[in-house]
Amino acid sequence: MATIAAAVVALTGCTAGPDSSASPDGGGSGGCGTEVPFDAQNFVDPTLNTNPYYPTKPGLQWVRGGSTLVGGREVPYEVISTMTDVIRIIDGVPAIAMLDEGTDSGEINQVGIDYFALDRDGNVWILGAYTEDYEGGEYTNTEDAWLGAAEGQTLGILAPAEVTIDTPMWCIGEIPGEDGEVGMPAEVGVQECVAFGCYDDVRVVQEGTAGAPDNENKYYAPGVGVIKNVPLDASIHKDRFELLNFVELSPSGLTEASNLVLDLEAHARESAAPDVYGSEPVSTRAE
Questions:
Q1: Cα–Cα distance for residue pair 102/109, rounded to 1 Å
Q2: What pLDDT was estimated at residue 105?
């Protein structure tokens, strides 16, 4: 598996599929930056946790807080993210499930799962997601549900193992017919302080669509992951947050979070998103 920096030499540029003629800079409809070919043979156990900028060790938990816009009104916003030990096989690759629990104005408004895979070079890929919306503590709808490339999605890298200021724009993922999600370096090797502490060698990554990449700047610190998010010109919800706490859960805490992921998947499989989850193998907890 090539790293992002090496892949740009081998690739002809941005591709939306085998017949794409999109420009190398990721611009234009359907663009998705530099893509690294997806090869299921080049992935490893995601619990090996080899990318310090996006730790995938089961039991790690992040609390991030700030604000977002709801109906044009700024409200307090907090997300608790937990790396569980739930493993799902997606397109032949083991992917680990991260649980996200979001609140605004102190009330749960969203619960979701992101599935991350780890390749041999330490790049962290995103291979699927499932998100439920809540109101007054009750489920209202499923906002997002996808697994792998079943619907023609381009799978991509969320967090490269290595990033320099010269690393070209990379593809995070793409839905056919739409601009892909991309990442590109804004700063590397900087110091950044947030509520939880100060960090050196931070990489600042601009993330957004290829047509409007200036959505937000995410600050990645080694050993911790995302410590800060700053909205940019293209941001709609103006999400602004920083790391408030970072812990490793007890075995019982990890079990609770992992069981919640399995419950969410069961809800998706049985009624909320059976077209996506219904025919897929059931996830299991890592031994």
A1: 6
A2: 77
Q: What 3-state class would DSSP assign to 140?
A: strand
Contacts 24+ apart (CB under 8 A), 44-47: 44/118, 44/119, 44/120, 45/94, 45/118, 46/87, 46/94, 46/95, 46/96, 46/116, 46/117, 46/118, 47/85, 47/87, 47/96, 47/286
- Looking at the DSSP assignment, which residues form a beta bridge with residue 197? 194
The CA-to-CA distance between both ends of the chain, in Å, stands at: 27
Spatial neighbors of 168 by CB under 8 A, at least 6 apart, are: 4, 5, 8, 33, 34, 184
pLDDT < 70 stretches in the chain: 1-30
Record the pTM.
0.89
Could you tell me if 89 and 110 are in contact, meaning their C-beta atoms sit under 8 angstroms apart? no
d(CA 83, CA 254): 8
